[in-house]
Amino acid sequence: MQINQSNIFPIMGDWLVSENSIKLDFSNQNADLLKLDMQSTQNFNDYVFGFLEQKEKKYGHGGYLENRMIYQRSTHFQQGESRCMHLGVDVWCEAFHPLYAPLDAKVHSFADNNNFGDYGPTIILEHELNNEKFYTLYGHLSRASLENLAIGDHIKKGRKFSELGPFPENGDWPPHLHFQLISDIKDLKGDFPGVCAPSELEQFKLLCPDPNVFIIGDS
User: Is residue 219 part of a domain?
Assistant: First the structure.
């Protein structure tokens, strides 16, 4: 899947660059996480936004194909082989931050995946570029983002279509966007795995290409 960034409107309204953002590490290489009670969303939130305030950044980002320990906080990821490989990119930012359509789109599906540690309110958009169909997924939204939304609605590139949700309605996470690029959504609606087991990684890498071209600016 070849996508030129010059064709894309920045989802956050800004391209994330070094001046406004910093990469966050949620792997087991981050010793700070070992001291953090991640069952407490408030504690987790204080850690994320305290770090951003200390670094004087508006956004935190990262996570594509990161082996993450933070999913140990929820049984949602611990059924069968533990799922810990992150298939999207996260943008950590204050709740109610607006999100904009990166390309012309139509609403493929949406749902409130209302489990602890899940996506919470989720929207999946369908796009077609150079005769190629693909999908973008937006998780951890506000419940208001799902109001007055209908499958098949057309959304023009650059139009605000949703916003980040607060916890607990966003799946009970510190406010952030889970953004994922999907080449083949199969028959799923309103949901798609955003984390996989290590044994599944190679097949999911084919379905979920690197989405950073939609988030990270060139400079």
Answer: no
Kindly state whether residue 145 falls inside one of the protein's structural domains. yes
Cβ–Cβ < 8 Å for 64, 211: yes
Domain annotation covers residue 113: yes
Q: List the domain range (segments joined by +) for residue 166.
A: 5-214
Give 153's Cβ-side CA count (13 Å radius): 18
Domain at 88, CATH number? 2.70.70.10
Rounded Cα distance between 125 and 103, Å, is 10
**How many folded domains does the chain comprise?**
1
Give the predicted TM-score (pTM) of the model. Answer: 0.93
Q: What is the mean pLDDT of each run of 10 residues along the chain (219 residues)?
A: 86 96 91 84 94 98 86 52 84 98 98 92 95 96 97 98 97 96 95 92 94 88
The 3-class SS string of 102-139 reads: CCCEEEEEEEEECCCCCCEEEEEEEEEECCEEEEEEEE
**CA–CA distance, 170 with 125 (Å, rounded to integer):** 18
Tokens for 143, please give them: 């419940």
Task: Provide the total of helices (H) and of strands (E) in the chain, helices listed first.
Answer: 3, 12
